[in-house]
Target: Glutamate synthase (NADPH/NADH) small chain
Amino acid sequence: MADPRGFLKVRERELPPNRPVEVRLRDWKDTHAHRAEGQPFLKEQAGRCMDCGVPFCHQGCPLGNLIPDWNDLVWRGQWADAIDRLHATNNFPEFTGRVCPAPCESSCVLSINQPAVTIKNVEVSIIDEAFARGLVTPHVPERLTGSTVAVVGSGPAGLAAAQQLTRAGHTVVVYERDPAIGGLLRYGIPDFKLEKSHIDRRLAQMEAEGTRFRPGVTIGEDISWDALRRRFDAVVVATGATVPRELPLPGRDLAGIHFAMDYLTPANHAVAAGTPDELPEGAPSAAGKHVVIIGGGDTGSDCLGTALRQGAASVTTLAIGKKPPLERPAHQPWPTDPILFEVSTSHEEGGERTYLASTVEFLPDADGNVRALKVAETQYLPDGRRVPAPGTEHEIPADLVLVAMGFTGPETAVLEEQTGAEITDRGLVARGDDYAASLPGVFVAGDAGRGQSLIVWAIAEGRAAAAAVDTYLQGSTELPAPVRPRTLALRS
Ligand SMILES: Cc1cc2nc3c(=O)[nH]c(=O)nc-3n(C[C@H](O)[C@H](O)[C@H](O)COP(=O)(O)OP(=O)(O)OC[C@H]3O[C@@H](n4cnc5c(N)ncnc54)[C@H](O)[C@@H]3O)c2cc1C
Ligand code: SF4
Model:
């Protein structure tokens, strides 16, 4: 522990300021300024860590990140050791350090009676500093095993599995149906949260290590799942949970109502092409429109930031439930990760947030476009169900509606049809305790097996699934397995 009195001397959190709203709304660049350089307070913030005997931050982080170790190393300015400790548990801290909701901070012991250690900012500072100092280099395996692995899906789960398996000496090919690698990191999360150069420089490292990438290939169409199984010794299914939750209300088929991903993906493509205002043919734009976003989560917040940058006339986010509390409620005590009212960088930038809003109908104009939403106040029934309260309906004008109500699960039809793989009652690709699907040599990692979740869980599952694949191929493994799968049971 670098400074035994650090947490007594510095009692407040200090973070680098975000770029001013009026400046950042004019571009698509990261809203934060992250480099450790220019953060004179970083050392003393890292020094607030108490190096707890029982570091609850480890338990809070699905990756089991060695947080007190790297807090100490940052305090000492030992960047090379700090990145080694960070990479020991996390393949991609540049992603989690930017967009993880940081459950580690909710479980930080210091947060019992002081603001938590700024763990996430220390994490991203380490990896940014490491890249800037040339400390992130390829880890080429010393010998090849001769075994081959196909990873289907290039989100954080697939990439983590691929990097671990390549480093273990297997020949790994990552297949991705999108034109570029990255999964939701690339085409879901906008640049103002995660600039795509962070993905590209990590992919360069992975390619130098020997991982092969095949974007633009849909498994099940371009290559059948069975053919893939015959061609490779093992297959990792990391296809995400991409099926959106529908809102089947009267008027849903009107023009101008879209799923969030049908809005975000083309917007991200346009930003990647360097022409954010030139959307692909037929893609929805918020420019000059009254936008209503249904759903108050991460996806809705990303739609908000995108709509504001496209020049929306107004943006209203509707959430069906109550406004979450500002402070930890008694029934979500430390060290749990509480559900609190969050103000994302997009919320800072504008828009209105309405709670207890139950949409009951989409209303048309004369041309068949959406004109307004009919919305009622949400009423909670004694059995916990939420229903529209009769007599409270009112209209909210809208000419673009984005349905951002989460995802029901992965697309499983083709996999099931071509291989007979078991699917759980919740529609997830079934796997056992060792990430193995119901078919020999097939493993499942990330949202495809657990449902839509977080990047940190996807990385943790990708690492753990890699350990299971290595054991399957080699009989034993030295790869770490940070988490057990959430969906344990195969359907009987
Ligand atoms: C808009 C949005 C914002 C989010 N923001 C955050 C955030 O801020 N923080 C956070 O922690 N999490 C966030 N999440 C959740 C997070 O992105 C996911 O939990 C995570 O990306 C899941 O990783 P994955 O590797 O399992 O799947 P994905 O990232 O979904 O990747 C799966 C990939 O598989 C590909 N694929 C599917 N089927 C096939 C096939 N048959 N052949 C070839 N390729 C295929 C898909 O094209 C996709 O690229 C967000 C999600 C969304 C939708
Ligand atoms: S719980 Fe907080 S104070 Fe304790 S070791 Fe972890 S980061 Fe440091």
